[in-house]
Design brief:
- With about 325 residues, this protein is of the alpha/beta class.
- The protein has two domains: about 220 residues, Spore Coat Polysaccharide Biosynthesis Protein SpsA, Chain A (Alpha-Beta Complex), CATH 3.90.550.10; about 70 residues.
- The chain contains twelve helices and ten strands.
- Strands 1, 2, 3, 4, 5, 6, 7, 8, 9 and 10 form a ten-stranded mixed β-sheet that branches.
- The protein starts with a strand and ends with a helix.
- The model has no long low-confidence stretch (mean pLDDT about 90).
Length: about 325
């Protein structure tokens, strides 16, 4: 059977979220959808649950592998996919209705577009909105923020080098394009999706919409220790990308500002506020925008509170 799109859903111990995730795929209309769930060695009841619903969910394909990580899971599913397009959706995320039809229709009418993505909302586990992605990345253009139309990105390669606004669960890409760039890198410990988007930006153009078409679940047990791996991956990705395609001095400055911002976040999580503050200031000086400035001001206030607390306890 020919499918318009294959939805790739890696799963690892996300049985409690799968019903909402798959329901959001089932709500997609006017497209012929293949759903590929690849279980990455789950130890919960995911596989049993998926097997029980296979007869009730048309075109659901269940693949299983030993625990090898999300990169291997996505690459395996892409190889098995029969759709012209690949859509990515993590097992704990979910889409809005008809997200796929609008996205695929635009890409079919614009053959140079190899990847498109949407805005998305960060949500709490009880379903409350936190902030939309484009709202967080304040350097992202917002002149059409109320539009549901798609717009072609200008120089996506340079922009994504320092501001990866692309949420993986919002992406639709041409299967042949993903295969051409070799899929997701298995050598990176983190950010393999960002690396893949940069490689795709070398062979085609990107499009985006301000429409919020996906909910990204902020789980309370999210692993923050992965930030060290992400910092290492950022360096490796930048080094490899710059060896392929040079970028302007302005982009390099923004890249370094993003690096300082990431270091600030890392040290903040590790409760080294003073070091976090200095990195944040450096980022704000190199690339002054609302997010960096707000962060620097917030860290100043927190550092002053800590200082006042220590002085009070020293004198008492």
């Amino acid at each position: 059977m020919n499918f318009d799109v294959s939805v790739v859903i890696p799963n690892y111990n996300c049985q409690q979220y799968l019903a909402k995730c798959l329901s959001s795929v089932a709500m997609q209309s006017k497209v012929n959808v293949e759903i590929i769930v690849i279980d990455d060695g789950s130890s919960d009841d995911s596989v049993e649950w998926l097997m029980n619903i296979q007869n009730a969910v048309p075109n659901l394909v269940l693949l299983q592998q030993e625990n090898k990580g999300v990169v291997a899971a996505r690459n395996t599913a892409i190889s098995a996919a029969r759709g012209e397009f690949i859509a990515f959706l993590d097992a704990d995320d979910y889409w809005t209705t008809d997200k796929l039809f609008t996205q695929i229709e635009f890409m079919r009418n614009n053959s140079t577009i190899v990847l498109s993505f949407t805005n998305y909302m960060h949500v709490t586990e009880d379903g409350k909105d936190i902030v939309d992605c484009f709202g967080y990345w304040s350097e992202f253009h917002r002149f059409e923020h109320n539009s549901r139309d798609y717009f072609e990105m200008q120089d996506p390669y340079s922009f994504i080098m320092y501001a990866n606004v692309i949420g993986t669960s919002t992406v639709v890409a041409r299967k042949e394009a993903i295969e051409k760039v070799g899929g997701f890198s298995s050598t990176l410990k983190s950010a393999s999706d960002w690396d893949c988007w940069l490689k795709l930006a070398n062979i085609g153009t990107f499009a985006y919409t301000y429409d919020v078409s996906m909910a990204y679940l902020m789980r309370s047990n999210s692993i923050t220790s992965n930030r060290r791996n992400r910092l290492d991956a950022m360096q490796a990705i930048w080094q490899n990308a710059l060896s392929r395609v040079p970028v302007s001095t302005s982009t390099r400055v923004k890249m370094y500002a993003r690096w300082l911002e990431s270091l600030s976040e890392y040290h903040d999580i590790n409760r080294n506020m003073f070091r976090s503050f200095w990195y944040s200031c450096g980022a704000a000086v190199l690339f002054p925008h609302k997010r960096n400035i707000r962060r620097a001001i917030s860290l100043v206030a927190r550092c002053l509170k800590v200082k006042a607390y220590h002085e009070k306890n020293t004198t008492s």
